[in-house]
Specification:
With 150 residues, the protein is an alpha+beta fold. It is 39% helix and 27% strand. It has helices at residues 2-15, 25-48, 52-63, 96-103, and strands at residues 68-75, 80-83, 111-116, 122-132, 137-147. Strand 4 and strand 5 (137-147) form a beta hairpin. Helix 1 (2-15) runs antiparallel to helix 2 and helix 2 packs antiparallel against helix 3.
Length: 150
């Protein structure tokens, strides 16, 4: 059932036309929040079930959207375990935005930061922690960079 929900969410994201959210900042915030929450759920379920392959497929699917610059799951050790860009898998996250995301342990504590990507485009970097198991164990975080949202 979860796979069906995941792929429906991914299809919706990929089907969205690229348009300006400038006049609709609340819509933009809600869209970012919902997309990152779905990725958080996928990561939590994938990590709980030991299914990193499914997580990698979902991150790659997100990366095909024209409004996603990058998507990644970073483990509790700070290493990228799944990403929309395969060259990032296995690398350590050392930037300040990533370290800030790593410190967040509130599953509902969405963090969004405006930054510039290598092309000079504004990217909304959004992250949420991934908490698994009944013991509420921290497993890392998901992070998505949204572009073309202004």
């Amino acid at each position: 059932m979860l796979n069906r929900q995941i792929f429906c969410a991914a299809a919706l994201l990929l089907a969205l036309p690229v348009f300006s959210f400038a006049a609709e900042s609340t819509l933009r915030t809600d869209f970012i929040s919902l997309t990152v929450q779905v990725f958080q759920t996928v990561a939590r379920e994938s990590v709980s079930n030991g299914d990193e392959k499914g997580l990698a497929v979902y991150a790659a699917t997100l990366g095909r959207s024209p409004i996603v610059d990058y998507a990644m799951y970073v483990s509790s050790t700070g290493v990228v375990r799944a990403a929309s860009r395969p060259d990032r898998v296995g690398t350590a996250v050392t930037d300040s935005v990533g370290k800030n995301a790593m410190a967040n342990r509130d599953p509902a504590g969405l963090r969004v930061v405006d930054e510039k990507n290598a092309k000079g485009e504004t990217v909304f970097d959004a992250s949420l922690p991934v908490i698994v198991g009944g013991s509420e164990a921290y497993a890392g975080y998901v992070r998505i960079g949204f572009k073309n949202l202004r």
